[in-house]
Amino acid sequence: MQSNLYPSTHTRCCFSWNSDKPQIPTPKILKHKLKTSIISPAVSTSLKTSLNFGEEKFNKQQEETTLPFYLPVSVRKSDSHSRYIWDGKDLKLVSVDGNSFSISDFDSNFEDTVHKLVRICVSAIRNFFLPREVSRNYLEYVKWKFVHRVSSSALQVLATQAMLRAIGIGNSRSLPLAAALNWVLKDGLGRLCRCIYTASLASSFDTNLKRVRFCTSVLFSLSIGVELLTPVFPQYFLMLASIANIAKQISLACYLATSTAVHRSFAVADNLGEVSAKGQIQTVCFDNLGLTLAATLNILSANNPRLQAGLIYAMYPVFSVLDLFGIYQGLKHVHLQTLTKDRLKIIISTWIQQGFVPSPEEVSKQEGIGLSWSRGREPWSIRIGCLNPRRCTAKLSAMTMQSLNSEDFYFLSPESLTSELERNQEYGVLLSLREGADTIAVIRGILHASYVCKGIETCGSSSAVLKQWFNLVEDGKRLTVQNLSFLYEQMLSLGWACKNILLSTQEQARYSFITE
């Protein structure tokens, strides 16, 4: 090798072989008449020494190791794991996970080859249905989604069959034009109500995602029951079918509106598109299985019309229970990282009482999914919104607003939960946010209100709380200043999405500070 690795002409590397003894190719320098830069002899000597050392090390390893041998580099893909191997002449990439086979393997070891083929098929099915990188709770969610979608699809097939019988399809006395008109009318009314519902409850899809989705699933099951009544009361077909379709359209709107948030909770590598695509594949396959199940039941009872007519009503409660149980269990494995007022209250309450920030999985276990909508607020619970003069304690609220300055982005005030005529007055805590309040201000406000609620527990009666209100607010403010930054850091470290806080339409109300 020349003393200058880059002479005055452009160079390139090629390899020559010694036919007597297999060895690693030695670099040669070929010259071409192109201008290049020059480096010092010292650098050239150092590089030459490094290349020779690497070649000697490889040749020594080749002599000491029985050929072929594995190189310390592997390639891992979603469905395979391979490693580079050197056989003395060629560099090869071979499988090391047991998922490769050839036809000749059947002759040598049939049983092992069959097991290997089964592993390959299982791996291919998994890659077809499941994304590559998802959270660990995703597989449990898919299991219950299977139960939910199969039952739901079978229910729809049975309901459609009942409705076709109600409008007289297959009956010589049926009127095709009237049947088609009724069908179009019930679809049109359902889509109109779907638009109204979606517009009126848009923010609830974020703040109460699990509860809204489960409630609309219950509504879907009830709509199937209404459709099953159409053969019994064919004269009321349009009314019954329209009511059922309105409920189904509302359920569909909720499903579409919440699917993105559910998929995002599983996309740990920001692969939302892949998770959504796999979700659609699962839905299609599971729905087809449900359709096949319902069709099989109809075929088995085809020779007995009375049994076929009664089968619909016999299978409805079974499929409905499976459908609701599947969606309920599936939602329990959806761990949302976004922040709402309710999740913040759970986080901060755990932080104050037990001294740690719960993870999204821990908070998910405490979130409500069922139908238990609270009819009223508990005493000294926290509400985000604007001050209502009819419910506030006038003097305390006026003094609180009088003390505000331009640096405050929220204020706390007691508000009455009962009417003035009731003897036992109950109160709650109002958190009113100012326009321009960011995420940190909202977290600070809820943390401050939570400290005030903790101090209220030691006061006793409501009248005692009102007398000590400003002292409670000052003590809570001091604790908030001390602990806010550490709480925020802990939330970020556990994967909570602290960039935004999702609030309902009522909670998004803000006040403006006027300087005179």
Automatic annotation (TrEMBL):
Pfam families: UVB_sens_prot. InterPro entries: RUS_fam, UVB_sens_RUS_dom. Signal peptide: none annotated. It comes from the Eukaryota. Residues 121-354 form the Protein root UVB sensitive/RUS domain. Belongs to the RUS1 family. This is Protein root UVB sensitive/RUS domain-containing protein.
